[in-house]
Amino acid sequence: MLEDSASPEQRRQAWWILAMNTFAFTVCFAAWMMNGVLITFLVENNVYPWGPAEMGWLIGIPVLTGAIFRLPLGIATDKWGGRIVYGLLLLFSAAAMYMVSYCDSYWGFFLAGLGFGFCGTSFAVGIAYTSVWFPRRLQGTALGIFGAGNAGAALTTIFAPRILKILTDGGANIEGWRTLPKIYAAALFATGLLFLLTTKTRIPAGSAHKTLMQRLQPLKVMRVWRFGLYYFFVFGGFVALAQWLVPYYVNVYTMTVASAGLLAACNSLPSGLIRAAGGWMSDKWGARTVMYWVFGTCLMCAGLLIVPQMDIHSPGSGVMAKLSGEVVSVSDSMIVVATKDRKLEYQLKTKQNELVSQKERNSGFLILPRMQSWQEAAVAVGDKVKRKDLLARGVTHVFFQANVWIFTILSLIMGAAMGIGKAGVYKHIPDYFPNDVGVVGGIVGVLGGLGGFVCPVIFGYLLRWTGLWTTCWMFFFVLIAICMIWMHLAIRKMEKKESPETAQKIDTLPNEA
């Protein structure tokens, strides 16, 4: 471990390991996210007739592998060291990625995705391997720098669509897509060789002799699973959006896959790069404070993003007869009803100009929703009406463009907050479990990876059931609220346990608001 008394050579070695871990993680993460772009491209170009649910499975299946095997590979890293485990992982993933170029069926892509999905386990390996090289006071910063490799997702969303366009000659030679997985396979293979040749094995003290049951003891602690739920959102949600936002932009805003990939990167690129800053923030202000801000910001953004694009006509406030009688006059602005002893005039709210012109619709720059209401006669001259009969029905027209730039800014803010949150969650682990970083980091990573797998599948089914693309934000809103509530209750419980007198005093203070 990098102590204050470490020699310059030891310091250089630690920072080189961190650099290689971060580089390898970036390459792995870029490869792990490839299906989000590739599957969308193949469906949009009618190469395969897959629906939203099938797309969700194919996009999510590599994430499933990366999630399930994080724990065993985290344990393996604690036992044999990161150099061997990481190096072999990169070489195996390269072989599985190469096989994607030969796929020609749904199940072929499914099985190949299971194979190269092992790229996703690189996070658990890298976390355990990085933590043994740095002291506790620097681990938040070091793990934050390592986690910046998440930016590999942005590299894929930005460059993969453009590479596909070049490889397929703009769609003229559609089979050219098969070269893309070969490029990723070559990058994984070269990185694996470099990793094995330039890094050094280091294992946590006493870890090599632990039994499997001893290694799994921390999983009995509820705190581990709470951290896992946080990571289910901040990491799993990030992974899900890195893949889901491409088809989201294509379908909701009728963009090309290349343009969608560029805007989707506005979510994934800041989320990856800012993770290093999140580690520093967690070291300086504490992970709890950071997580409160992360969840609060994400909850606000998700709430604003829930509102879908809409151009709807809905029933509004109508006009009812005050007394029985006969309709003697009907116009756009008034209905006159003759009763036994008098005539009653009912003023109608008339329709103004068109709510939105065609030019405004095409501009794409409308930010705030627009609404207009009016009333239309529901009776004709000569009709007999009774008291409380409907004379004029109300009509309300609502138009909301869900401006793409506002959407992207909110997505960017949410992605950045997720990046900070990822560092905040992993700052907790070496603090509470310094000798079990591989195991605890592995299970937290499993739950986070499962979030990346489960969320696109849930998104696909929610879209199928409701027809609303914004249901993904509804799901996130509920998930964030659960995380916030559980975190706050757990913190209050710890405060009462550690300092019951202070906690009791706070609970009984008069409300000054």
Per CATH, the superfamily of the largest domain is: MFS general substrate transporter like domains
Structural class: alpha+beta
* Structural Rg: 29 Å
> Which word captures the global form?
elongated
Taking the sheet with the most strands, its summary is:
4 strands, antiparallel
Give a count of the beta strands, DSSP E runs of length 2 or more.
Answer: 7
CATH class of the largest domain: Mainly Alpha
Which series of helices and strands comes N to C? HHHHHHHHHHHHHHHHEEEEHEEEHHHH
CATH fold assignment of the largest domain? Growth Hormone, Chain: A
Distance between the termini: 50 Å
Approximate strand percentage: 5-15%
Strands of the largest sheet, in order across it?
4-3-2-6
- Looking at the overall shape, the CATH architecture of the largest domain is Up-down Bundle
Number of helices: 21
* Tally of discrete structural domains: 2
Identify the notable features of this structure and list them briefly.
513 residues, alpha+beta, Growth Hormone, Chain: A, OB fold (Dihydrolipoamide Acetyltransferase, E2P), four-stranded antiparallel sheet, disordered C terminus
Question: Explain this structure to me?
Answer:
- The chain is of the alpha+beta class and 513 residues long.
- The chain has two domains: 10-207 and 215-307 and 404-491, Up-down Bundle (Growth Hormone, Chain: A); 310-400, OB fold (Dihydrolipoamide Acetyltransferase, E2P), CATH 2.40.50.100.
- Helix content is 65%, strand content 9%.
- The protein has helices spanning 8-32, 34-44, 52-68, 70-80, 82-100, 106-116, 122-131, 136-147, 152-167, 179-198, 212-215, 222-234, 236-252, 257-273, 275-285, 287-305, 358-363, 404-432, 437-466, 471-498, 500-508, and strands at 310-320, 325-330, 334-338, 343-347, 370-377, 384-385, 390-400.
- The protein has a four-stranded antiparallel beta sheet with strand order 4-3-2-6, with no helix packed on it.
- Strand 2 (325-330) and strand 3 (334-338) form a beta hairpin.
- Helix 1 (8-32) packs antiparallel against helix 10 (179-198).
- The longest helix has 30 residues, at 437-466.
- The protein is elongated, with a radius of gyration of 29 Å.
- The chain starts with 7 loop residues before the first helix and ends in a 5-residue tail after the last helix.
